[in-house]
Request: fold
Amino acid sequence: MAMEGVPVPERTKTKIARDVKLLDKMKKAKEARAKKVHAQRHALKMRTYKYVSEYRKERENLIKLRREAKAKGGFYKDPEAKVILATRIKGINKLAPKPKMILRLFRLRQLHNAVFIKVNKATIEMLKAVQPFITYGYPTLKTVRQLVYKRGYAKVGKPGAHSRIRLQANDIVSEHLGKYGIHGVEDLVHEIYTCGPYFKQANNFLWPFKLSSPRKGFKSKRHGYNEPRKGDWGNREEMINELVQRMI
Reply:
């Protein structure tokens, strides 16, 4: 600090003025960022309320349609699922080249890996080709949310040098998927569960889920789930949720 009556060098004056200017600039940037984060959090909160209302209305409408069909002496056929959850239950031993390539396309490279798959004719045929190595079905909202929150990791970085980062904050999601209107984990869950227009980008952003061996184990990996002997591989439909709950 300069003493009273002692002249301050011009260079020091310039440095002090520069530091004051930079400090003011940093303060304004910090305030602007705080306002932006607050606005994003509020918007995400409002969208979350909207999603909850949407899920509730969908569930109530489904119950209403089932009751109406039952009252008329018929039955209501649920709409076809848009998303499949597939889990690999067998390793690499005695694996032919074609199933190996399909499993690689599905990103099911390791035992107990799980991924979401969009339902269409091509994916259904591919699933049939690798049925003895996987089990799959239709996930509920609870299963999707628990997988993303408890076992969710982001795949970030350049192709060939991706990093696996834990989904601990909405900032990671907003940074990589913000251009698609996905700014938080709840947006990500909604996009996956409803199979939205940016399902592909949201699904590729997620690293394949690494699950544990199921509590109480498997029944028989040699036999299919729909066989009379009741095995494990194949289409479980809604019962996939019970298995995944034991693997999370």
